[in-house]
Amino acid sequence: MQLGTVVVAKRFLGPPNSGNGGYSCGRVAAFVEGDAEVTLRRPPPLDTPMSVVSAADGNVELYSGDELIAYAHATSVDTPDIAPPGFAEAEAAATRTFHAERHPLPTCFVCGPHREPGDGLRIHVGPVDPDDDDNWSGVLAAPWIPHPSLADEAGVVRPEFVWAALDCPTAYASSTAAGMRTILLGRQAVRIVRRPAAGERCVVATRQTGHDGRKYFAEAGLYDENGAVLAAGRATWIEVSPEVQKGGRGKRSRFDER
Predict the structure, then answer these.
(1) Cα–Cα distance for residue pair 130/177, rounded to 1 Å
(2) How confident is the prediction for the chain on average, in pLDDT?
(3) Alpha-carbon distance 72 to 139, whole Å?
(4) How far apart are CA 100 and CA 167, in angstroms?
(5) How far apart are the C-alpha atoms of 137 and 129, rounded to whole Å?
């Protein structure tokens, strides 16, 4: 049964020719009640109507034509084991992120350093502890003040942008001070407690939780400036070739893995 249609506009790209993973996952998660987990199978195409259908196994599936792009189901997401820094601490942490020249996807909607303020989210997390090791094994954080263009008619940030804000920070947590690994989002799960208002001072904090072969695991939290949890998420990132990370179709992609 068809549930609806999703279009990922070009503004919300990750790689140059496909949708940002977190934003795309958030659009699919809108068809799942409560906490949701979304797995990406193929790069979400831009400016293309995609069908959302209810599958026989209970999943919600996203198709571009006959090609399965993603599937989602209800889940449970725990609050991350992170002591959130204050807003000023997050501002200082963001200054310790890796240099923009080391960013492989500089136009990414969430973390691209080439995106203008008000266009991209420009969330660039860095280590809260200035003495954190080069492997960034501690907590990373950044401030985030949502732009009005991200809000609904009530002035509250739309859910897909909460998903996006929790996405790329976990890629940084899965990387090192030397720069982002050649990874792309494979799976994301999110629980939203309260969506922030446009203009509200927020903190995004994240940490790595494991590594298994080509897979990297991390968790993240979105907090208000008093440290209350607004949303929580976990993510699995898959190591790919530089060609695939930049939007090409390599022989082996993280989208082929369940």
Answers:
(1) 12
(2) 94
(3) 28
(4) 18
(5) 10
